[in-house]
Design brief:
single chain, Four Helix Bundle (Hemerythrin (Met), subunit A)
Length: 114
């Protein structure tokens, strides 16, 4: 991964965070009243997680020689173990990964509790 790719991924994260801020700054009634808001928010979660994982993998491989990572959540766990991210940041990103997985795989959480 070269510098241009890193800058692209950082830009993608920033852009999607801004979109999320804009969507979430609406009154709740407006947010819920337009299905496009929910789909937009889902999409930005996926984009943020995937770009963050790509950056994390690059850092782990290039700077720390980590060859194998078992899934998206492991990227953030290993980053915490290496002192790259704090425990809190890693835990929050792992929650974001789980949310991304729910979005991508369209798991109905009500079925999980039955």
């Amino acid at each position: 991964m070269d510098d241009q790719r890193i800058l692209y991924l950082l830009g993608e994260i920033r852009e999607n965070l801004e979109i999320a801020r804009n969507v979430l700054s609406q009154p709740i009634e407006d947010f819920l009243g337009d299905i496009r808001n929910r789909y937009t928010l889902r999409h930005v979660v996926v984009e943020i997680v995937e770009a963050s994982v790509a950056l994390g993998l690059y850092i782990l491989r290039k700077l720390y020689g980590v060859e194998k990572v078992d899934g998206y959540t492991s990227v953030f766990k290993k980053m915490m173990e290496k002192g790259i991210t704090s425990l809190q940041t890693s835990e929050e990103m792992m929650r974001m990964v789980r949310l991304r997985n729910l979005i991508i795989h369209k798991i109905n959480t009500r079925k999980l509790t039955m």
